[in-house]
Write a structure and sequence with these properties.
Length: 320
């Protein structure tokens, strides 16, 4: 079957290890289902895998891709929950949690095999392309906002780095849930898009906000950390799920954190139950993922280049 896969690890030039070509189709195994992939979306996790983060040389070649929607062997339209091992379903009871391509072949292929427990019904209101955007970036944003930040309608939230997959999802979900949303971006066009998606205001990096916020959604890391901490009201919550600009900020702002009794919460992905809630929320309220571009699988390299260069707003989707 045709697939996009990591053939080599290159920490400095990750796309040098990306190959497109034929790979073996998944073998049947008890407790697992084979899904005919209709659409799959890119995440920064795929780039990090090409750099060898969470993926060792011993696991190569590895088909990339965590997110997908498709049709299972019984003809059901399904969405994949890409966290494997946290429940023991379909894998050994003591297997640690991992994201799909850290241990098992991924979704950038004509077919993918996952534990049957990891499949959820695709709502008929969502296209395959839309549903394929939800299991990683959108699920991460959903958990950050509603589980870990604990915000409620009427609260205010700052989303750093508008344009990225998680950040874009957070803007849309927060606005749909009745939150007051502020966003930042270096790019004027992305700031304008953030407002179109429901942000009350969009600002350049480090700009002072009109008010301090109840929560900050942080995925940028070092470059925005100080601004995130300074933007919180006393007792506010900073939720972080990534550090695309690096993990070591120049100033940790520890004095401000303890004096204002701020909360810093780490967040990674989400549960199957949260994904089910997210799918239901999108179907019921007309919320749709922001898609930057849709490409056929054989043009996957273009999608990776777009993501690596930051030249996107929303998700890149590959169709099979």
């Amino acid at each position: 079957m045709f697939a996009a896969y990591a053939a080599r690890i290159d920490r400095d030039k990750p796309l040098a290890g990306l190959e497109l070509g034929e790979r073996p189709a998944p073998d049947p195994r008890p407790g697992w289902s084979t899904v005919n992939v209709r659409a799959a979306s890119l995440n920064h996790h795929d780039l990090w895998s090409l750099r060898g983060v969470g993926l060792g040389e011993e696991s190569l070649p590895m088909i990339l891709g965590c997110d997908a929607a498709g049709v299972d062997q019984d003809g059901n339209e399904v969405v994949l929950h890409s966290v494997i091992g946290q429940s023991g379903h379909g894998v050994g009871p003591h297997e640690p949690r991992s994201i799909l391509t850290e241990r098992y072949q991924g979704t950038f292929a004509e077919q993918v095999a996952v534990p049957t427990w990891n499949l959820l019904p695709k709502p008929r209101e969502l296209s395959f392309e839309e549903a394929a955007c939800l299991p990683t970036a959108w699920l991460t944003a959903y958990r950050m906002l509603f589980t870990n930040a604990g915000v409620r309608p009427g609260d205010s939230v700052l989303v750093q780095g508008a344009g990225g997959g998680v950040a874009t999802a957070a803007i849309v979900l927060a606005a749909a849930a009745g939150l007051r949303v502020f966003a930042t971006s270096r790019d004027e066009t992305k700031r304008r898009r953030a407002v179109e998606l429901g942000a009350e205001g969009a600002f350049g990096p480090g700009e002072r906000l009109p008010r301090r916020v109840d929560a900050v959604i942080e995925t940028v890391g070092a470059a925005t950390w100080s601004h995130s901490v300074k933007s919180l009201r006393p007792g506010g919550t900073l939720v972080i799920s990534g550090a695309t600009s690096g993990p070591d900020p120049k100033a940790t702002e520890l004095n401000r954190i303890f004096f204002l009794e701020l909360k810093v919460v780490g967040s990674t992905m989400g549960t199957k139950e949260e994904l089910a809630d997210l799918l239901s929320f999108c179907a019921a309220h007309g919320v749709r993922p922001v898609i930057d571009s849709v490409l056929p699988l054989d043009r996957a390299r273009e999608g990776f280049e777009k993501m690596a260069g930051g030249d996107l707003f929303g998700k890149v989707v590959l169709t099979v």
